[in-house]
Amino acid sequence: MKNIHISEVISRKELSILNENDSLNTYLNLDKQEAQDHYILNDFNILTGIINEKAVLQFISPMLCLIDQQKGNNLMKGLKEIPVSSIANKSFTALNINDNLSDILVLFAQTTEKTLPVVDELGQLSGNVTIQSVLNRLSFDAEISDLFREKTLQVI
Questions:
Q1: Which of 8, 22, 37, 47 is the most exposed place for a label (fewest CB within 10 A)?
Q2: CB 79 within 8 A of CB 88
Q3: Per the structure, how many domains does the chain have?
Q4: What is the DSSP string of the chain?
Q5: Averaged pLDDT for residues 94-118
Q6: Phi, psi for 124 (deg, rounded to 5)
Q7: Is 1 contained in some domain?
Q8: Is 68 contained in some domain?
Q9: Is 34 contained in some domain?
Q10: How much is the pLDDT for 149?
Q11: What are phi and psi of 142, to 5 degrees?
Q12: For residue 51, what are the domain limits?
């Protein structure tokens, strides 16, 4: 497993990226077809945070239960101007572009996340890795190993 590089499991799917100065309104207007993490980058493309629907709800819900409908509408208008960097999770776990499968398995075991961002040495976002892509790679290795074993037995 040590020789399996992160490049073999990194997602080729387009990532959802926001600038740290983008507003909550920008986030709320994104075309979100499925629940996913949205990566927050600074002006140097350094990953500074991750935002998702749960983080937004956790930020907004305590305020909404304290006010009536009229004030709630005004509050939502004001909240929409807040930068996403104020709401984003800044204490995230990230993989390094040089990690191997053993490193990846350890980090997934230590977190509840199903997807982890991948950054380079500068902290710039390179992609992400999902638990599913890791399991698919492990499954592929098992199939190859079984096929090799089967072919070897046929020769003997």
A1: 8
A2: no
A3: 1
A4: -TT-BGGGTB--SPPPEEETT-BHHHHHTS--SS---EEEE-TT-BEEEEE-HHHHHHHHHHHHTTS-HHHHHHHHHHHTTSBGGGTSB-S---EETT-BHHHHHHHHHH-S-SEEEEE-TTSBEEEEEEHHHHHHHHHHHHHHHHHHHHHHHHH-
A5: 90
A6: -80, 140
A7: no
A8: yes
A9: yes
A10: 47
A11: -65, -40
A12: 6-155
Examine residue 94 and state whether it is found in any structural domain, yes or no: yes
**C-alpha distance from residue 113 to each of 15, 17, 37, 75, 131 (Å):** 16, 18, 10, 31, 9
Which range (42-46, 72-76, 129-133, 147-151) has the least confidence?
A: 147-151
> What CATH number is attached to the domain comprising 100?
3.10.580.10
Predicted pLDDT at 79: 76
Res 140: pLDDT: 61
Residue with tokens 């930068």: 83
Give the pTM.
0.78
The span from the CA of 118 to the CA of 127, in Å, is 5
Give which of 112, 82, 95, 113 is closest to 18, Cα–Cα: 82
pLDDT greater than 60 at residue 143 = no
Q: What is the pLDDT of residues 60-87, one digit of tens each?
A: 888 766 666 656 667 667 778 899 999 9
57 CB neighbour count, 10 Å cutoff: 10
